[in-house]
Design a protein that fits this description.
Distance between the termini: 23 Å
Number of strands: 10
Shape: globular
Strand content: 15-25%
Length: 179
């Protein structure tokens, strides 16, 4: 299968996850993250503002803030194909862009020197290689800045048949929930 075919297949499976089943998996993933040494030691954490079919990140973001850590979310310039991390101080600062992706709509600091990045993706293999949404933003960011990385993954996202390209950058560790 091509990356595009794998992406379509896995996205379809993610969107079909039952509400209660998804909530349980999300809660388990959050707990694993909060207990993880990389998370506990990090002060500046990069994380996406999730879409409905992804692991729900708003409770994670609130936990990060409540524990005195700083939250940074992707700020993407599509025409330049660049991504930086912008500080999120409160969830009321969030709007939706032209591609349906949530972002910080206020002027807040940009900081790419993060202690931990929780890397999103559509499909993963057990070595940490991933297929995202096709823009290459995270691979470029991770290969340049090389922060500590984790991904929160549903078991339906694990695929051993991922095509790997030379520019692909693996995530250091996957936390995988059974669905």
């Amino acid at each position: 299968m091509t990356k595009k075919e794998i992406r379509q297949h896995v996205l379809k499976s993610m969107k079909q996850l039952e509400g209660h089943q998804k909530q349980q998996a999300d809660q388990w993933l959050r707990q694993q993250l909060f207990n993880h040494p990389k998370y506990q030691q990090a002060q500046k954490i990069g994380i996406v503002l999730s879409m409905p079919h992804e692991v729900h990140t708003d409770p994670i973001i609130l936990h990060i803030m409540q524990h005195g850590k700083q939250v940074y979310v992707p700020a993407t310039t599509y025409y330049k194909k660049t991504m930086n991390f912008q500080q999120l101080v409160h969830l009321s600062q969030v709007s939706i862009d032209e591609k349906g992706i949530r972002y910080v709509d206020e002027e807040t600091p940009i900081d790419n020197q993060l202690d931990l990045v929780i890397v999103p993706g559509v499909a993963f293999n057990r070595e940490g290689y991933r297929i995202g949404y096709g823009g290459g933003y995270f691979d470029r960011f991770l290969s340049h800045y090389q922060p500590a990385t984790l991904s929160l993954v549903y078991d339906i996202q694990i695929r051993e048949d991922l095509p790997i390209a030379s520019h692909d950058y693996p995530v250091a560790e996957l936390i995988i929930a059974k669905t």
